[in-house]
Amino acid sequence: MLIAQISDLHIQLGGQNEHLISAHRHLATCVDALNALLPRPDLVVATGDLTEHGKPEEYQVLKQELDRLAMPFILIAGNHDDPATLRAGFPEHHWMRDAEPFLQYTIDTWPLRIVALDTTLPRRGDGGLCDARLEWLAQTLAEQPDRPTLILMHHPPFETGIRRMDELGLLQGREAFARVIEPYRNIERILCGHLHRSIVCRVGGTVASTCPGTAHQIALDLREDARLLFNFEPPGYQLHWFGPQGLVSHQAVIGDFPGPYGL
């Protein structure tokens, strides 16, 4: 199974930096790049911050672009999203209603079981996992403890060293989350967004990773007094190949570059 991960699309209509970032144009380029892949991914997962303001018209633009994908896609919400408006914009994605009021669900039709976990808090940039969400996760994992499983969540369950983003990280329930997943050796990966960068960390006996944004990236600055800045490093996505040894992940950039050349 081949999974493409995209994240932090930030489709924006109006407001600060709309024309500077050009999120719509970048997403269109990303969709074209994914459709051109050989082999073509079986599934695309988008790990949150799909829009900038959570407006219905932003989700209309998002749906217009994602519907061009030649393969199925699934979505989770980020802190910039409005879960109710997201559900309304994608009514055919019935699984996003499985655990209302939270936007979390399981999909069991792929070789990898998909467990999507909601880390968002209303009108806040940081994330959290309350007792109800953690209990849902514990029950869900216990249902199929031996089946290879992929967890999706927007806020990564670890500190990154980018201080200003860590202040907007998963501030509630992070340690409890690690305790819930620790007994399970079938969790292949925890795929996250939020950081607009590729970052990897071991959490609870498995590996958690973040994905670049489709448009802009968070500047890599590990100084204690660093400001929170963004830049235009090449936009990217990740490809996760589920093979004989488990999940193998590849980093890819979007754009036209010289090559490829023969070796």
UniProtKB/TrEMBL annotation:
One of its GO terms (molecular function) is metal ion binding. It holds the Pfam family Metallophos. Gene3D superfamilies: GpdQ, beta-strand dimerisation domain, GpdQ, catalytic alpha/beta sandwich domain. Transmembrane segments: none annotated. SUPFAM superfamilies: Metallo-dependent phosphatases. Keywords: Hydrolase, Iron, Metal-binding. InterPro entries: Calcineurin-like_PHP, CNP_phosphodiesterase-III, GpdQ/CpdA-like, GpdQ_beta-strand, GpdQ_catalytic, Metallo-depent_PP-like. Residues 1-197 form the Calcineurin-like phosphoesterase domain. The keyword Hydrolase applies. PANTHER family: CYCLIC NUCLEOTIDE PHOSPHODIESTERASE CBUA0032-RELATED (PTHR42988:SF2), PHOSPHOHYDROLASE (PTHR42988). Belongs to the cyclic nucleotide phosphodiesterase class-III family. This is Phosphodiesterase. It comes from Parapusillimonas granuli.
